[in-house]
Amino acid sequence: MVIIKRYSNRKLYNTNEKQYVTLERIAELIRNGEDIQVTDHETGEDLTAMTFAQIIFEQEKKGSGTVSQGVLARLIKAGGDTVESLRRTISPQLEAARTFNTEVENRIHSLIKRNEINAEEGKNLIEKLLSVGAPPPPVEDDIPTRDDILKLSAQIDALTKEIESLEAEQEE
């Protein structure tokens, strides 16, 4: 877990990297799958939720936010427990998807290195495999349900089988 200390001058210090960080850097760490905790340097108060809200606010201000008004309204109505519950539910699935994507790319690169397919075919195959079964763009105010996540897991399993089948064909 990455621990960020917030000082009275509002500066944020990453205790793991031993350097000051910006909200954008914290957002980058989150996107990379890091667990983040932000605490007040003097009091030890947990400021994680407030910091995450600031990150969302800054992204929305820049116009690069991806959170719809409907989702924001539902989060406000539901309170903080819903956000944490959603994070706990989705995080393992997102990690599995990242692992799957990495595995697809590694296997295709392995086929290219063994000269079983050329680089262009590999690139096309990666694009095809990673786009097959990709979930449709989310509805503006839609929060994924457990069923949505289970369907995504099933799609990942199906894609894994497809890759294994393609590898078996290449080995013949």
Unreliable sequence segments: none
Rg measurement, Å: 20 Å
- Largest sheet entry: 4 strands, mixed
Helix share bin: 55-70%
Q: How would you state the average pLDDT, rounded?
A: 78
Tell how many strands the DSSP assignment holds: 4
Order of helices and strands: EEEHEHHHHH
Portion in strands: 5-15%
Describe the structure.
The protein has 172 residues and is an alpha+beta fold. It folds into two domains: 2-66, MutS, DNA mismatch repair protein, domain I; 79-171, no CATH class. Helices cover 62% and strands 9% of the residues. The chain has six helices and four strands; from the N terminus they run E-E-E-H-E-H-H-H-H-H. The protein has helices spanning 23-31, 48-62, 69-78, 80-113, 119-131, 146-171; strands at 2-6, 12-14, 19-21, 36-40. It has a four-stranded mixed β-sheet. Strand 2 and strand 3 (19-21) form a beta hairpin. Helix 1 packs across helix 2, helix 4 runs antiparallel to helix 5 and helix 4 (80-113) packs parallel to helix 6 (146-171). The protein is elongated and about 65 Å long. The chain starts with a strand and ends with a helix.
Provide a brief overview of the structure.
By secondary structure, the protein is an alpha+beta fold. The chain is built from six helices and four strands, in the order βββαβααααα. The chain folds into two domains: 2-66, MutS, DNA mismatch repair protein, domain I; 79-171, no CATH class.
Detail the topology: elements first, then pairings.
Elements: E1 2-6, E2 12-14, E3 19-21, H1 23-31, E4 36-40, H2 48-62, H3 69-78, H4 80-113, H5 119-131, H6 146-171
Parallel strand pairs: 1-4
Antiparallel strand pairs: 1-2, 2-3
